[in-house]
Every structure is written in structure tokens, then in C-alpha cells.
Design brief:
Protein name: Proteasome subunit beta
Number of strands: 12
CATH class of the largest domain: Alpha Beta
Organism: Globodera rostochiensis
CATH architecture of the largest domain: 4-Layer Sandwich
Radius of gyration: 26 Å
Pfam families: Proteasome
Mean pLDDT: 87
Strand order of the largest sheet: 10-1-2-11-12
Largest sheet: 5 strands, antiparallel
Oligomer: single chain
Subcellular location: Nucleus
Keywords: Cytoplasm, Proteasome
Strand content: 25-35%
Number of helices: 6
């Protein structure tokens, strides 16, 4: 409100000016009300982009995730080298997207319990046991869940590749493939078409290539290359891991994606 607009004016003009200034102030407050309301609200969860995916074969599993970490508005790139795939043992791999703080906390607790099990019982925890333990860990936090799309992968006790998918409160299901994160739906559709051939007729399916490890690696690379052209929070590079029955190590490879 400018004082000099009212000096030397008649009372009628002064009142008209005052009402005009008051209307302008009310309009400004109305425009700011959404911002004020947003500041009052607090959300403990923030999804930080990215995509994680896994493919299982008869005696192998292939796991991959991108390395881009984005902010809450999906336009800020916080990191270009963020690890979302975590090797827990030589047969168990955790792949997860969501809020990165919860991802790291879940990985830390899971690794701690696996190490404690091996110390107490003097043998390695199996993938099946770890999958049940993870489901109970997530369910125990159901009132304030970990904001993660966890995928537990590896080689089971029978030597088969296995993938377990979870929701934030611990509901678990075994899949031949799975994906989570912002690009999860796109990647799963691609896997249905190129890995399990669910979209073709049974006659055509017989002519499709066998689900070998080499083909799984090729399908995974193609999935992330195509996804990075369509999904902005997935990019920079991909960490690719695979484990095979009868081997005591997890193999690793990195390939670049677009960085914009």
C-alpha cells in the first residue's frame, strides 16, 4: 500500500483507493493459497526414478538396473552412478527402485540377517529362505512401509533361476521375469513379447529362439536401450549382473545409455 496515493485526496477517493488495494491483496493471497497449503503438507515418501528388471532361465538369472537418481520433480538428476542392484551372496541378488534411502536400509538389514544366519547355522541361506524372510521384513513395516519395489533374484536350491517380486507391504509372488520402477510396465510388456512370447500364437511360439543366457542378456540390453528413449528418469548407464547354477560368482557388465 503506497501512502502517497492517499495524501491530498478527498475521503471518497481515499476510500476507493483503499478498497482497490485491499482487493489486490486478497487476490494475491488467493493465488498463493495452493503454495501455502503445499508447504503445510509433508510427505515422507519420494520416488527417485529409475528402473530395475530381471529375467530367469532354467539355470540362470539376469538382473539389471539403471544408474540415474532423480529428484521429486523428475527433472533434477541427483546422481548418474547410483547402484540399485545389490549382491547379497553368490546366489542371491536384490534389485530395487523407489526411495533410495529405503532401498539402502532394506539392503543393509537383509544383508545383516543373511550374515547372522550363516554365522549361527554355519551354512549359506537359500534363496527360498531369503524370499520368505524378506516378505516378513516388509510386512513388519506395514504401518510405515519401505517405499521400494523389491525384486529378489538368484539361483534356488534346485539350481533353477528364480525371481520373487514384492509390493511395499510384503505380498510376494514368483515370476519368470519382473520389473519395477518408472519404466517397469514398459519393460514387462517388452519381456512378454521378446522373452516368454506371450503375445504370439502357440504355433509361432515353437519357432521362437530358445531362452538361453546369451539371449537373455541381449533382450535385457534391448529393453533398457529402448526404455531410455521413452522414460526420462532412466538413463546414463545400466549395471548388468547374471548368475548361473554351478558357478560361485556373479558376473557383471556395464553399458552406457543416453545421458540427457
Amino acid at each position: 500500500m503506497d501512502f502517497y496515493n492517499f495524501v491530498g485526496k478527498s475521503p471518497i477517493v481515499q476510500m476507493a483507493k483503499f478498497k482497490e488495494t485491499l482487493d489486490d491483496s486478497s487476490a494475491a493471497l488467493a493465488a498463493m493459497s495452493p503454495m501455502i497449503e503445499q508447504q503445510r503438507q509433508w510427505n515422507p515418501y519420494t520416488s527417485q526414478g529409475g528402473t530395475a528388471a530381471a529375467l530367469a532361465g532354467d539355470d540362470f538369472v539376469v538382473v539389471a538396473s539403471d544408474t540415474r537418481l532423480t529428484g521429486p520433480n523428475e527433472i533434477e538428476i541427483l546422481s548418474r552412478n547410483c547402484e540399485k542392484t545389490h549382491i547379497l551372496t553368490n546366489k542371491i541378488i536384490l534389485n530395487s527402485c523407489g526411495f533410495y534411502g529405503d532401498v539402502l536400509q532394506l539392503k543393509r538389514l537383509l544383508k545383516l540377517r543373511i550374515d547372522h544366519y550363516e554365522f549361527v547355522y554355519q551354512h549359506a541361506m537359500s534363496l527360498e529362505q531369503c524370499s520368505e524372510m524378506l516378505a516378513r521384513m516388509l510386512y513388519s513395516r506395514r504401518s510405515f512401509p519401505y517405499y521400494t519395489g523389491a525384486i529378489l533374484c538368484g539361483i534356488d536350491s534346485d539350481g533353477h533361476g528364480s525371481i520373487y517380486g514384492y509390493d511395499p507391504i510384503g505380498c510376494m509372488e514368483r515370476f519368470p521375469f519382473n520389473a519395477s520402477g518408472y519404466g517397469g510396465k514398459i519393460v514387462q510388456t517388452f519381456f512378454e513379447n521378446q522373452w516368454t512370447f506371450s503375445t504370439v500364437s502357440p504355433e509361432e511360439r515353437k519357432k521362437m529362439p530358445a531362452p538361453t543366457l546369451e539371449r537373455a542378456l541381449s533382450v535385457m540390453r534391448d529393453a533398457f536401450r529402448g526404455l531410455s528413449e521413452r522414460e526420462t528418469t532412466t538413463g546414463d548407464s545400466v549395471k548388468l549382473y547374471w548368475a548361473k547354477a554351478g558357478e560361485d560368482q556373479v558376473h557383471h557388465q556395464t553399458f552406457r545409455l543416453r545421458g540427457d
